[in-house]
């Protein structure tokens, strides 16, 4: 018996050493730890586990996580990858979240799946058991998990609120379930809608919904949310689609307002953005600008040789503003009428007698003016005869008058000395027919030579027409200078 025990002892010791060496070798490779995050689910939920791999080697390694339980179970990581891999640095631990989805489970039970973790470099594999508890199969319908693949789009994604847009929903029934009345709820911050749609077994269906927003919807970013229900039970997780309501600005010509020589035009600016700030520009011309006013006041800008009226506008809370131009040609008419009236009044009230004075035949002596001939012309420019016209001219005391006989010229009938006015020369014209003219002249001689400029006062003609005394003055004349 003792011999037998000795033999056994000799055999046992090497085996024990070998097993210890194997254990050391195994421990030196990698370890796996499974931590449940959510392992008790209903049949249409997804379980979640944390798989941690401890790399006991001195080299960086990559591990592959093999799925288990297919086709009744599906396993995946986020983001999706196939195969599922995990890189672990030397002597380190890394983890990955594994999601476990029951595809065709129809009873409440606890299920254990052996997930394989394989060291890529050597092919060494360890099994990591994960346990999932199905606590309810209520989500099953007719023994199936309702699976309706759904996608949605919105066209256009940048929506002009003045126009229509289309929401497209694509439904794909993955199993043989018949849905006689699915409820599709469409929601966003701007609108809500509810559709009732039948979907047959394995049927593909596309639904298009045309929507319209209020034209004054402000620019904004929004989210379209699509959820699908069967008898108030959510069978498709909400799908979210981003879209945008864009800004717009339009200009509308307002009705033209016209009155006598006055035109008022307007432009209405409308935007869905209460903070809109922009420029309104219309063409103009320099001639128009003379007779144009603007409201509010516009700036005149030249571009490429052309002129434009430019407004910087802000629509404000009302989201609309109007600018106006007014072309007013009435001042032209007023000016023309005033000119015509002035001309008419001038011809009505002007003196019928025109008196013009001239000087000529100037004689020089000792470097100065010594004598000159003065000519006064009196004309009746009216259409009627004028009688009893008295014509008078003046000379300063430095000179005296000598009578001169000239053909067609009337000589003064009186020459008087006035203490203040100097020498006064008078003529008397008894009758002057319409359009006739009389030439009156005399010769002036200076007592001393006149140096420099010599000015002579205006001559005058006086008569009475009816009860009205009319006096006409000639021009002034000068000589020398």
Estimated share of beta-strand residues: over 45%
Class by alpha and beta content: mainly beta
User: What gross morphology would you assign?
Assistant: rod-shaped
Q: How many helical stretches?
A: 3
Assembly of the depicted chains: single chain
Low-confidence stretches: 1-9
Q: What is the CATH domain class of the largest domain?
A: Mainly Beta
Fraction in helix? 10-25%
The whole-angstrom Rg is 59 Å
Report the span from N to C terminus: 172 Å
CATH architecture of the largest domain: Sandwich
Largest sheet: 5 strands, mixed
Strand order of the largest sheet: 2-9-8-4-6
What count of structural domains?
4
CATH topology of the largest domain, what is it called?
Answer: Immunoglobulin-like
Report on the structure:
The chain is mainly beta and 481 residues long. It folds into four domains: 29-136, Sandwich (Immunoglobulin-like), CATH 2.60.40; 148-245, Sandwich (Immunoglobulin-like), CATH 2.60.40; 261-330; 350-479, Immunoglobulin-like. The protein is 11% helix and 59% strand. It contains three helices and 37 strands. The strands form nine sheets. It has a five-stranded mixed sheet with strand order 2-9-8-4-6, with no helix packed on it. Strands 11-17-16-13-14 form a five-stranded mixed sheet, with no helix packed on it. Strands 18, 19, 20, 22 and 25 form a five-stranded antiparallel sheet that branches. The N and C termini lie far apart (172 Å). The relative contact order is 0.07. Mean pLDDT is 85; it is low at 1-9.
